[in-house]
């Protein structure tokens, strides 16, 4: 079920341009694109044919505003038709400025309001565990500024304390939190019992290694630092 | 009602879809169930935002969450999580509160939640159960857990003397004949309402399921005078009654808990009196409503 086909950068770029439609995208879109590619190319066990398989991996985009690259990638991987990209945000479009799980195939949660994804991810991980599904992992993508939301800290503390081993958080750190995270975002997780890796958020090999070195006994966080191209 | 809820919830845990989500409140009572079903009795600690997020995540995997805490912590503290982690995801849960409007009056404003049903009522397609007796709780819980949508069960220490387990639709408790004013009482206020109009020509109907409100029953029973008696914020069901009777001339009196923070402790019975929800207070309000000229004089 694992997808190992690398996304063609030219195709992805063209699809992103169709979403962009002449608009300017901010750092929140470009800083997330590499992580999304590594996840969908090499990590997540999910395909358009398995979006309803209870044993699929779950990817929860918590920072819902980083949606343009997500839509482009979902189109590149065949989850949504490419022509859906052309009127993103339009009155007949299924693709909003934040994704809606009831409107977009392959999208696990409707997001936008920050600080909801990790709690939903914890519940999803618990639900899979209650059903004896030990294979699927739950991946939640957050931003470093989103980490300011207190709801995340409830989820970090609980997941660490209970050893929720099927959960991975990915924090795209483009230094956008108003007051920063002295010592690095990862320390907020490790102090609560998570394993952590902090890597260059543009380095696909490093991201892949970091995303796959969880130990199955503790929750795992990957901090993807993105400082260029802001 | 809390004790009977714990027992009933343990029973529905026999269904492997059921998962109870707690934030320390009632965790000790659920300890035996947690020992038996360690993966399906989840206590997240004192974390109400997470409690609701976890419920949403569980529901996304196909589990049926029962989320339980004190009313202000369950409904008010993490309202956005109820709106987004349940409703917006298109999944449902069963929320079960204790504490009601002022069951723990001596604890003060922090533990009072008279606005809970009004808040839930900002959401779409929720079922709201307000049992008036502990013996009504198990059946209502089972029905809610067996459903697919979202439901709110509002448990209270205040009860009527008798249980009426099957009273989703309006049930006539006292018939004063055609054209009589209609008093609709909800949940544990039935006995006080009946006492208030015992010697008045007023029809009394009762329900423990204010949402969806039995509008067909209301239209069948209502004349021109309608009195709503609810154990939570006054007027919570006014919009429903107003819409149901929009095509006919009618007058509506809404009685319930007032909006101001009284900053008074005491007992639930004291608060009943202060909010005019004891039999004497209800009688005063009903009499004034039905004889407006005399009241104004």
Automatic annotation (TrEMBL), chain A:
Record-given protein name? Transketolase
Residues in Transketolase N-terminal domain copies? 30-223
TrEMBL record, chain B:
Transketolase-like pyrimidine-binding domain ranges (all copies) = 1-163
Coiled-coil ranges from the UniProt annotation: none
Specify the domain of life of the species encoding this protein. Answer: Bacteria
- Which stretch is the leader sequence? none
Q: What is this protein called?
A: Transketolase
Q: Name one Pfam family in it.
A: Transket_pyr
Transmembrane stretches, by residue range?
none
């Amino acid at each position: 079920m694992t997808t190992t086909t690398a996304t063609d950068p030219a195709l992805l770029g063209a699809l992103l341009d169709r979403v962009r439609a002449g608009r300017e995208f901010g750092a929140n879109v470009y800083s997330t694109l590499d992580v999304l590619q590594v996840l969908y190319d090499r990590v997540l066990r999910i395909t358009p044919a398995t979006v309803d398989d209870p044993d699929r991996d779950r990817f929860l985009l918590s920072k819902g505003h980083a949606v343009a690259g997500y839509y482009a990638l979902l189109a590149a991987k065949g989850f949504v038709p490419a022509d859906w990209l052309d009127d993103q945000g339009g009155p007949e479009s299924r693709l909003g400025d934040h994704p809606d799980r009831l409107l977009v195939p392959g999208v696990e949660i409707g997001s936008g309001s920050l600080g909801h994804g990790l709690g939903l991810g914890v519940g999803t991980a618990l639900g899979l565990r209650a059903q004896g599904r030990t294979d699927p992992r739950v991946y939640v993508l957050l931003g470093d500024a989103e980490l300011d939301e207190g709801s995340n800290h409830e989820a970090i503390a609980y997941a660490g304390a209970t050893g929720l081993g099927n959960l991975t958080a990915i924090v795209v750190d483009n230094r956008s939190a108003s007051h920063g995270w002295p010592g690095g975002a990862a320390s907020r997780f490790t102090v609560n019992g998570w394993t952590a890796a902090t890597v260059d958020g543009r380095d696909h090999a490093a991201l892949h290694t970091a995303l796959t070195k969880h130990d199955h006994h503790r929750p795992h966080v990957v901090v993807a630092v993105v400082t260029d191209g802001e | 009602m809390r004790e009977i809820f714990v027992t009933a919830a343990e029973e529905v845990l026999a269904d492997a879809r059921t998962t109870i989500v707690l934030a320390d409140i009632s965790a000790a009572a659920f300890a035996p169930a947690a020992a038996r079903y360690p993966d399906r009795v989840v206590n997240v600690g004192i974390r109400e935002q997470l409690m609701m997020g976890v419920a949403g995540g569980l529901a996304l995997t196909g589990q049926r969450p029962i989320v339980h805490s004190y009313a202000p912590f369950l409904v008010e503290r993490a309202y956005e999580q109820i709106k987004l982690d349940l409703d917006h995801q298109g999944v449902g849960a069963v929320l079960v509160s204790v504490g009601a409007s002022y069951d723990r009056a001596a604890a003060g404003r922090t533990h009072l939640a008279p606005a809970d049903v009004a808040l839930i009522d900002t959401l779409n397609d929720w079922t709201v159960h307000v049992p008036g007796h502990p013996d009504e709780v198990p059946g209502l819980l089972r029905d809610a857990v067996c459903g697919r949508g979202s439901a709110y069960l509002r448990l209270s220490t205040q009860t009527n003397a008798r249980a009426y387990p099957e009273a989703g639709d309006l049930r006539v408790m006292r018939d004063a004949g055609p054209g009589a004013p209609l008093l609709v009482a909800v949940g544990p206020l039935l006995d006080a309402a009946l006492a208030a109009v015992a010697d008045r020509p007023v029809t009394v109907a009762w329900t423990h399921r204010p949402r969806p409100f039995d509008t067909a029953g209301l239209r069948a029973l209502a004349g021109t005078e309608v009195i709503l008696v609810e154990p939570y914020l006054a007027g919570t069901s006014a919009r429903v009654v107003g819409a149901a009777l929009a095509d006919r001339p009618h007058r509506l009196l809404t009685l319930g808990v007032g909006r101001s923070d009284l900053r008074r402790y005491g007992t639930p019975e004291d608060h009943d009196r202060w909010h005019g929800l004891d039999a004497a207070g209800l009688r005063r309000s009903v009499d004034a409503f039905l004889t407006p000229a005399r009241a104004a004089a």
